[in-house]
């Protein structure tokens, strides 16, 4: 993986490439920014460059045995094997420190508790960090450098963060720590202040659409729809299924067109239908995109500015009605409901409240 292969983020790529070329990669970096924009990919590309046998150079060569070994370890199948192996040892923290090369470790959080129960968010446990701290203090085995990438670093619990501080206070000369996080505020200030921070912004809509079309062969119209809905996240755009979206959207448009006439019982029934959808998160993303469009139309935007430009004809009358006046606030409620569902909020109750809010009752 080369730095040049990461979509967008030219300024960050330049900073990293220059540092690598001068053999001055900082001992501790924090790559922060929204999910799915390429932070981890950039971190791993920089790590590979630091280990590459042609280093110091602005990019990994991609050809030397070290580069080939790292690339092979990053194949999705191989990563999945390591994760599954870790899940067979739920009580042994350091199994989730995935070794991609003797001198390159990718630390991920655990989705399981020690007793094997699923967690709502992954957790990086103290045993992982202790093992990391020991390794960071050591000399490289084979390469010139050692790199430790900590994905979703905000998943470090209190004791993990305390344990990590030690490494950040006395960074050894040939080890590098790269923290990756979409929620850096979940990291202690003492950790953040010891890292050089590189902030990733969302990707532009056109960059996401071009990537989908050029590298994944997605037809232009669908690429634009996906890019519009992904809010600058390539990860979201790749996961997105346009067909599922369209059918979910049809149901929601029909609901919005009649929502003000529903009585209390109808509203409860509608909430149940939404709650039982195959992918409630997709329902909420879709609903939010429709409400955003209504708010935009109400504010005088033209149809070409809409996320759902292809159904502008059905959105326009809604935007002129009472729903249009409340659409901006409702879009935020839909986003809030989506956030709540990621925790263990009562799903049906959340949808009940949302449908009531839509109907203004
Ligand atoms: Zn190489």
Topology, please?
Elements lengths: L9 H12 L6 E5 L6 H13 L13 H9 L2 H12 L9 E5 L2 E4 L2 E3 L5 E6 L2 H12 L8 E5 L7 H12 L5 E7 L7 H4 L3 E4 L5 H12 L3 H10 L4 H6 L2 H17 L5 H12 L4 H19 L13 H9 L1 H21 L4 H13 L2
Parallel strand pairs: 1-7, 1-8, 3-6, 6-7
Antiparallel strand pairs: 2-3, 4-5
Helix pairs in contact: 1-2, 5-6, 8-9, 11-13, 12-16, 13-14, 13-15, 15-16
The site of zinc ion has 9 residues, from helix 3.
Tags for this model:
single chain; 361 residues; Zinc Finger, Delta Prime, domain 3; 2 domains; six-stranded mixed β-sheet; 8 strands; elongated; binds zinc ion
Describe this structure in words.
The protein is α/β, with parallel strands linked by helices. The chain folds into two domains: 3-201, P-loop containing nucleotide triphosphate hydrolases (Rossmann fold), CATH 3.40.50.300; 241-359, Zinc Finger, Delta Prime, domain 3. 53% of the residues lie in helices and 11% in strands. The protein has 16 helices and eight strands. The protein has helices at residues 10-21, 39-51, 65-73, 76-87, 126-137, 158-169, 189-192, 205-216, 220-229, 234-239, 242-258, 264-275, 280-298, 312-320, 322-342, 347-359; strands spanning 28-32, 97-101, 104-107, 110-112, 118-123, 146-150, 175-181, 196-199. The strands form two sheets. The protein has a six-stranded mixed beta sheet, sandwiched between helices. Strand 4 (110-112) and strand 5 form a beta hairpin. Helix 5 (126-137) runs parallel beside helix 6. The relative contact order is 0.10. The protein binds zinc ion. Zinc ion binds next to helix 3.
């Amino acid at each position: 993986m080369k730095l040049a292969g990461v979509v967008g983020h030219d300024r960050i790529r330049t900073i990293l490439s220059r540092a690598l070329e001068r053999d001055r990669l900082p001992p501790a970096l924090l790559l922060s920014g929204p999910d799915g924009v390429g932070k981890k990919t950039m971190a791993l590309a920089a790590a590979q460059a630091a280990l590459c046998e042609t280093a110091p150079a602005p990019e990994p060569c991609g050809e030397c045995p070290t580069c080939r070994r790292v690339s092979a370890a990053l194949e999705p199948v191989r990563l999945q094997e390591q994760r599954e192996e870790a899940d067979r040892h739920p009580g042994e923290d350091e199994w989730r420190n995935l070794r991609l090369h003797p001198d390159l470790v990718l630390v991920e959080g655990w989705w399981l508790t020690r007793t094997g129960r699923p967690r709502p968010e992954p957790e990086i446990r103290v045993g992982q960090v202790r093992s990391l701290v020991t390794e960071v203090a050591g000399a490289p085995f084979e390469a010139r450098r050692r790199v430790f990438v900590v994905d979703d670093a905000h998943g470090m619990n209190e004791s993990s963060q305390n344990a990590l501080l030690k490494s950040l206070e006395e960074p050894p000369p040939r080890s590098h720590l790269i923290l990756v996080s979409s929620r850096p505020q979940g990291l202690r200030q003492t950790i953040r202040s010891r890292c050089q921070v590189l902030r990733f912004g969302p990707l532009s809509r056109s960059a996401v659409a071009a990537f989908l079309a050029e590298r994944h062969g997605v037809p232009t119209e669908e690429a634009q729809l996906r890019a519009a809905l992904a809010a600058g996240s390539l990860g979201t755009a790749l996961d997105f299924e346009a067909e599922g979206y369209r059918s979910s959207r049809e149901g929601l448009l029909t609901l919005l067109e009649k929502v003000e006439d529903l009585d209390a019982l109808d509203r409860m029934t509608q909430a149940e239908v939404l709650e039982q959808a195959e992918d409630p998160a997709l329902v909420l993303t879709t609903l939010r995109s429709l409400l955003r469009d209504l708010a935009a139309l109400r504010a005088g935007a033209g149809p070409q500015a809409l996320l759902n430009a292809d159904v502008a004809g059905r959105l326009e009358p809604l935007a002129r009605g009472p729903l249009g006046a409340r659409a901006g606030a409702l879009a935020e409620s839909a986003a809030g409901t989506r956030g709540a569902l990621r925790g263990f909020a009562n799903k049906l109750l959340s949808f009940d409240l949302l449908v009531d809010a839509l109907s203004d009752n």
